[in-house]
Amino acid sequence: MTPKTNRRNFLKTSLMVGAGLFLPKSIALAKSNSSDDKRIIVIGAGLAGLSCAYELKQAGYNVLLLEARSRPGGRVRTYRDPFADGLYAEMGAEYVDSSDEHVRKYAKEFELPILPAKQYDGIYVRGQHLSMADMKSGKVPLPYKGIEQGKLFGQEAAYLQEWIKMVQELGESSKEVQALDKMSVAEILRKGGAPQDIIDLYIYTNATESTSIPSKMSALNMVLANSRTSAFSENTEEGRILGGNDQLPKTFAKKLGNKIHYNRAVQKIEYTKDQVTIQFIENEKRQSISGSKCVLAMPLSVLRRIKIDPLFSESKMYCIRKQSYGHVMKIAMQYSRRFWDEPGSIGQRVFTDTPLRRVYHFSIDQPGPRGILLSFTSGDDAKKLGRMSEERRMGTAQKSCAEIWKEAPQYWEGGVTKYWNEDPWTRASYSIAGVGQKDFRDILSRPEGMFHFAGEHTSIHRASMNGAIESGLRTSEEIIKS
Ligand SMILES: Cc1cc2nc3c(=O)[nH]c(=O)nc-3n(C[C@H](O)[C@H](O)[C@H](O)COP(=O)(O)OP(=O)(O)OC[C@H]3O[C@@H](n4cnc5c(N)ncnc54)[C@H](O)[C@@H]3O)c2cc1C
Description:
Elements: H1 3-18, H2 29-33, E1 40-43, H3 47-58, E2 63-66, E3 78-79, E4 89-90, E5 96-97, H4 101-109, E6 114-116, E7 122-125, E8 128-131, H5 132-137, H6 161-170, H7 175-178, H8 185-191, H9 196-204, H10 206-210, H11 219-227, E9 238-241, H12 247-256, E10 260-261, E11 265-271, E12 276-282, E13 285-291, E14 293-296, H13 300-303, E15 307-309, H14 314-322, E16 328-335, E17 349-352, E18 358-361, E19 371-378, H15 379-386, H16 390-404, H17 408-411, E20 412-419, H18 440-445, E21 451-453, H19 465-481
Helix pairs in contact: 3-12, 3-19, 6-11
Bound molecules: flavin-adenine dinucleotide.
């Protein structure tokens, strides 16, 4: 599908949603479905809920999916409307890694090609412009103290040797290793003798990916990542669904048809020994629907605000309330000329310590001359930007881009931000391995009675589309097996 056709479809769809024409016929959803006590109710049409409902439907189950928004996909969100020339931008999930087997499997099944992304080629930190190649060859130094020159990511490893050795000698599940979960990344690095510069650099490397800050991230997670040599690096092999990632949830949704009910925000979950009753808002009125099982596939940052009666087990409720999340913002900026691809440019995918953090050319599959620069910013910078008006956010974005590419201001056309922490149906970025939370995922993913728990926060591949789908498949299997 070409981006042009997509844009047309998108406009058509959004107009119809606006006019209420896309609202499912089931205005009286509660009444029309109230006779079926074998129904499985899935809450949340992100990739977790969609993949779960899709597999259950395929297996012949009577499934019903309730979604608060008027669209499927949750944190997979492609914007097309604000841009000219059929340009689009991923304001939520973007990259599909080479190992993301579940995303790749469904993308293949739904005939959605994945276009490889370009790698980092520039660095702009502490006011210095560096080329990634020059930094890697040792030609130019990275301006941080206590680092090993020639690489950007993984600088923390040198200060973790004592604990990496401990993992090798005692094993990952030993008491001593597991106890590292009580310490934060910042604490263990200080204990290991790391200068402040190492912690500062970590903010812009791994903490940015996690959307958190070193004082809130578990040391255990960092030590294990480094001892498995699987820590994130600047040499990534990633792709994006050509024409927009939203095609993946939209295809699931199309296949689910009238099983999905949009604009149904769940407010209360009640249950007895053999029946689950879900209260939701439908056309501004409170309605309810019952079923025999329920899959909860919404972020915990939202679930913790919903009434649950009676409460789930103490440990489950504790994790629901306490699970750590980060802050994240995406900023899409349209420029009339692709100056980042021209001679003299620092690069087209730039690692920075500006408030924008990662800045990169998004529209690599489109001809130009216009193009979109996208920023992925997180942690304290996202939080700070989040407190600003849209106008001030854009002003800060323009200023940072002008520092990275001095010719940027003359080609500026406009932009848009998406701060996920202010979205009422997300209220967060994605789950992070917080201090003292090593057992959370196991507890959160465990079924309780008629309830099954999906969502990226329940997956070993947390914080990803792949993890969301993995959890959807796990919960559908739990139900099928039971
Ligand atoms: C900015 C950003 C960048 C990211 N980058 C990447 C990336 O590059 N690669 C990658 O793989 N992943 C990335 N992710 C992570 C990825 O988006 C998520 O892990 C995944 O999409 C989560 O899916 P989910 O189904 O668990 O949750 P969601 O997508 O959040 O779905 C939950 C659904 O529940 C609905 N809901 C919430 N409350 C209610 C309610 N009360 N009633 C009914 N419905 C409700 C929501 O509207 C939503 O549709 C990124 C995320 C963000 C925010």
